[in-house]
Write a structure and sequence with these properties.
disordered C terminus; RT_dom; Reverse transcriptase domain-containing protein; 656 residues; 50% helix; globular; DNA/RNA_pol_sf; 5 domains; 4-stranded antiparallel β-sheet
């Protein structure tokens, strides 16, 4: 009996010892994986972020797909299902073809391009060396390593392609990888196609795109409302332009009605014949026009999923996904969308016709806005583009007495749903202009990501931790912050707490308070980063480096330069502006930029005629001598005094 007990005890101890060894082995293996990921962070960032995504439990496997009561697990069958789903997104291109449209051209047409080995090398430099190889099997890193050797033969190949108007079939083939969008993994429609094309073809496209862009800019092809794929414009510039219109309407005592439209599979639905007619209309002809026609025609794709590959299928319509020229061709396609719009402002970001805006002061203004919407619907019908009416949304900013807030009509005649909040280019817009829902969303998502990152890494050295924070968290917290930057202390603190918590977990930062940590890590607080960005952005606008969307002006008093926003001139006698609207106007982007810029020393405000980097260097040098603490002292008192003065002015105007 005693021997049996000893054997049981020995057996338990052996199992416990094995479990301890297994835990130690797994811990050691995890540390080695972390160290390997950290060491390759600079040389191979793709491997580094692959490790991160693995820790986030992101699955690469597709399916299984549900078909009736059964599940499809076979890779080939999964590929067939995806081919059917992606193929259904195409439209049949017009059968009427004008083969001679590019034969005749004027002297100011872009009929051919001149290029050399330098252009080819610049295009090769733009390749991402960590990107996957296309159907031709040539990886980007190989092309980058051999650019000096291959640039000359590639220039000969592109010249021959343009002269003959022919493109090899392998350059018109795409390998399509399905990426899960969200929702059920068992439905093919929950996957979006991402295309991989030949890197050599991308080099050719970059050379051609550069020449086309110069031609289009010279001929003023881009309409004022287009912010997608246009040099110097972005989602931020579109949002700023939109909100500037809102604040102008509020200052004028009007309401701004906004309709958010959405195309259904816009890139895939483009009719090739209609697109080619517009390419010709924009004075692109001759060899280049014929080459673009060849670029669009007879394209093929294969779906790659779970280690299997489908048969080739034809691309019937659309601008080719995964190509460099797709974006600029789509911009050409919709460049005339506002041709018959008379009263409204139409703003778009690529295929996102996100805003049709009009200031409303009477019922007649509403009728005019509906007429402009009908003109846009007709344009879509004439150009064989379809809208996704389920995603139409309507918002109103400001209130007008005796003008009812009612729904505008969609193409089918149904009323468009009126919303108090709507997701707009990554920012949750709200009709009260407070952006509370947007800030709550980014705070919540940032905390989730922060928790995941801190669980993924037990090695918490300074360099990788800061890179992780910048890539996965700070990018969320600062995206288009000039639009929604918080004024409520609650949100300022909550946003700051995310960086406060993360920095406290970095090795060697234990025992230091937040602002001491920032100094040791050579970082700014998020609040200071926002102020710094406002200053730089404002300086770029008044210097003409960036488009002056905020309508900022400079005022010289003696030898001192200050900034003035157009907003301050909006308080004109006789306008009925509510206190709520006054608060919104006071906290608009233009006023925030103006206040931040005017608070820096005169010697910084007076800097002119230099590059942005030189201004940043001078600004950072000054900021190093200013304690990075929560706002206080003269700045906050000045803001408070100014705010009270403006609100008192508004009250006096209403009384008058």
């Amino acid at each position: 009996m005693h021997i049996v007990k000893k054997r049981k005890t020995f057996s338990k101890n052996k199992i416990l010892e094995t479990e301890i060894k297994l835990i130690e082995f797994r811990r050691k293996e995890k540390l080695e994986s972390e160290e390997k990921a950290i060491n390759c962070m600079k040389e191979n960032p793709r491997m580094f972020f692959s490790y991160i995504n693995k820790q986030r439990n992101r699955k690469n496997e597709i399916g299984p797909f549900k078909s009736g009561d059964e599940f499809i697990y076979n890779g080939k069958e999964i590929c067939k299902k995806l081919v059917s789903e992606f193929f259904s997104q195409f439209s049949k291109t017009s059968s009427v073809e004008n083969e001679n449209r590019f034969d005749e051209y004027d002297s100011d047409d872009l009929s051919d391009i001149e290029f050399g080995t330098k252009d080819i090398e610049e295009a090769i430099n733009d390749l991402d060396e960590n990107s996957s190889a296309g159907p031709d099997g040539l990886p980007a890193i190989f092309l980058k390593k051999t650019k000096e050797t291959i640039s000359l033969p590639l220039s000969f190949l592109l010249r021959k392609s343009l002269d003959e108007g022919k493109i090899p079939d392998i350059f018109k083939l795409a390998h399509v990888t399905p990426i899960h969008k969200g929702g059920s993994r068992q439905k093919p429609e929950q996957y979006r196609p991402v295309s991989l094309t030949s890197h050599i073809m991308k080099i050719f496209e970059r050379v051609i795109k550069k020449k086309i862009m110069k031609h289009l800019i010279k001929n003023q092809t881009f309409n004022d409302g287009q912010h997608g794929f246009v040099p110097g414009r972005s989602t931020q510039t579109q949002l700023l332009a939109h909100y500037n219109e809102i604040y102008e309407a509020l200052m004028e005592g009007k309401r701004l009605d906004t309709i958010f439209l959405d195309f259904a599979k816009a890139f895939d639905k483009v009719d090739h014949e209609i697109l080619l007619e517009k390419v010709r209309r924009h004075k692109i002809s001759g060899k280049l026009g014929k080459w673009i026609k060849e670029f669009l025609r007879n394209r093929k794709f294969k779906v790659v999923a779970n280690g299997c590959m489908s048969e080739e299928e034809s691309v019937l319509s659309g601008v080719p996904q995964g190509t460099v020229l797709a974006a600029i061709l789509f911009v050409i396609m919709i460049s005339d969308i506002n041709e018959n719009v008379k009263e409204c402002i139409v703003r778009s970001f690529a295929d996102d016709i996100r805003r049709v805006n009009k200031k409303i002061n009477s019922d007649r203004d509403k009728e005019l806005m509906q007429e402009d919407l009908e003109a846009i619907y007709k344009w879509a019908s004439d150009n064989k583009m379809k809208f996704n009416e389920n995603k139409f949304e309507q918002m109103a900013h400001g209130n007008i007495e005796n003008v009812e807030l009612s729904s505008y009509k969609s193409p089918s005649g149904d009323g468009i749903e009126i919303k108090s909040t709507a997701k707009d280019l990554g920012v949750m817009a709200s009709n009260d202009l407070m952006f509370k829902e947007h800030m709550n969303n980014i705070i919540t998502s940032s905390k989730i990501v922060m928790g995941m990152l801190l669980r993924a890494f037990s090695i918490r050295e300074k360099e990788p931790m800061i890179k992780l924070f910048n890539t996965y968290i700070k990018s969320k917290l600062e995206y288009c912050c000039i639009v929604w930057s918080p004024v409520q202390q609650t949100f300022i603190t909550e946003l700051e707490n995310i960086q406060r918590t993360f920095t406290s977990k970095i090795n060697g930062m234990e025992g230091y308070d937040y602002h001491e940590r920032l100094k040791k890590l050579n970082m700014y607080s998020l609040e200071r980063r926002r102020d710094r960005y406002f200053i730089i952005y404002g300086w770029q606008q008044i210097e003409g480096i960036k488009e002056n969307i905020l309508n900022l002006k400079t005022n010289w008093k003696g030898r001192s330069r200050t900034m003035i926003s157009k907003v301050i001139k909006g308080y004109i006698e006789g306008r009925r502006i509510t206190r709520k609207d006054i608060t919104s106007i006071h906290n608009c982007p233009a006023r925030k930029v103006e206040r931040a810029f005017n608070c820096i020393p005169t010697k910084l405000r007076n800097i002119t005629g230099v590059q942005t980097e030189a201004f940043k260097e001078q600004l950072d040098r000054w900021l190093q001598g200013v304690p990075d603490l929560p706002r206080g002292g003269r700045y906050s008192r000045w803001v408070a005094a100014e705010s009270n003065a403006i609100q008192d002015q508004a009250v006096n105007l209403r009384r008058g």
